[in-house]
Amino acid sequence: MFEKDYEIKxxxxxxxxxxxxxxxLNFLQDIAAVHAEMLGFGYSFIAPKCLxxxxxxxxxxxxxxxxxxxxxxxxxxxxxxxxxxxLRDFEIYAPNGDKIALVSSSWVLTDFNTRKIVxxxxxxxxxxxxxxDVFQTNFAKIPxxxxxxxxxxxxxxxxxxxxxxxxxxxxxxxWALEVLGFEFRANHTISELEINYxxxxxxxxxxxxxxxxxxxxxxxxxxxxxxxxxxxxxxxxIIWE
Length: 241
What we know:
By secondary structure, this protein is an alpha+beta fold.
């Protein structure tokens, strides 16, 4: 298990001094990368093999969204390799020890040349893992939006592209949330979040973000599409409080 503190900068919070959702995902991505490097299967090991780690799924359960605090502590560990994917869990804590969130994630190794998934066991000779689950999740399928209550189109910018030459995973959440508008965002806080990443986006693509609000369940469903091709690139389910 690896632990790291993250100081929260003033530009990483909203006007209510609450940590921005995309920043939290970037923290998770950072600590996952740092820990993978320490364990011997990070960027310096896989890049020479023309491989990259690609995030498939997130499931977050949030108990106290970070607000009015100076830092958070994140703990993480890899779990046993599945047939085609690797699982990683996270625990997030406030400075006083209060639990902020629990997170489970699923990742795959991809060949940059073929854009195909590589069986991890054929590349990783040793894979240290911890048999500990933050919670039980099957990364359930997220239904597509049926009734469009919110809709917006975005251009993929140069600054959206990461080291793998596609859109950084945190940007998908930003596009999904921004469509909801100021009033909704200002009066609601995420309590549970599921994200299924399906396809990558490149510079110059356009993103169509649509969302459906199921008021009785306090849930929004989100579908992000590549407007150039019509392909679904990401699906999200968010429970609000």
